[in-house]
Amino acid sequence: MLYESSNKSGKVVFMFLLSDKYWEIKNTKNKGRGVFAKKDILKGVVIGDYIGKVIHPQDAIIDEENFYLMYYNDYAVISPDLKKPGVHLLNHSCKPSSFLYTYKGHTLAFALKKISKGEEITIPYLLSPKDDFCNPCLHICKCGNLKCSGTMHLSKDIYEKWRKLSEKWAKKTKKERIIFGKELPKLKIYPQIPEEYIGEIKKLFIF
Ligand SMILES: [Zn+2]
Ligand SMILES: [Zn+2]
Predict the structure, then answer these.
(1) Would you tell me which CATH number, out of the four given (3.40.30.10, 2.170.270.10, 2.60.120.260, 3.40.50.720), belongs to the domain 23-125+160-198?
(2) Which of 10, 64, 72, 124 is 20 to 30 A removed from 48 (C-alpha atoms)?
(3) Residue ranges of domains in the chain
């Protein structure tokens, strides 16, 4: 069962869609906590949904927690409950094992390739190019890959291309209505990730 939910009570919404048979939170050597596969996860499987409270960007507390805000639209951001396990715990990598897909406004994390048991589940944070506001910049990458860029910020060129690509795909589905101050409701059905989308990402980022 691919989209198994941890939400049994119907009240508490966890952001991982895969049950905890598939993942565990462990300490890493140099990146704090990380999420690791407890079982093989097949390519294309939706791992989680970036669920959290819907808030106005101006209501976001400007502190370190801002790091976990996820864009919904120009008027709303998603602020996850940091006490619950979820997609916000995935570490950044320059060669990530999973990636993000926008579907009905939701940001889904899915396996970009087969993730083997024991492997860390990572995503790219896809931060906009480093500017004067990001100073001192805390977005240093320690992923340890051969082609590690040393930063979670994208270059101007890649960022512009990524923005166009993601906007094009986000427009293919309609955003669902949201209520400010409430938790973003889980989707009724989670989609298959289009092969074409995965192909376009791999071409752009050369993972
Ligand atoms: Zn930075
Ligand atoms: Zn890196």
Answers:
(1) 2.170.270.10
(2) 64
(3) 23-125+160-198
**pLDDT bracket for residue 46 (50, 70, 90):** very high
Q: What is the pTM of this model?
A: 0.88
DSSP string across the chain: -TT--S--SSS---SB-S-TTSEEEEE-SSSSEEEEESS-B-TT-EEEE---EEE-GGGS--SGGGGG-EEEETTEEEE--TTS-SGGGPEE-SS-SEEEEEETTEEEEEESSPBPTT-EEEE---BPPP-TTS-S---B-----TT--SBSBPPHHHHHHHHHHHHHHHTTSPPPP--TTSBPPPPSSPPPPPHHHHHHHHHHH--
Q: How confident is the model at residue 29 (pLDDT cuts 50, 70, 90)?
A: confident
Query: Which ligand has the shortest distance to the CA of 96?
Result: 2
Residue 64's pLDDT is 52
Measured in Å, residue 135 CA sits from the centre of ligand 1 at: 7
117 CA to middle of ligand 2, Å? Answer: 21
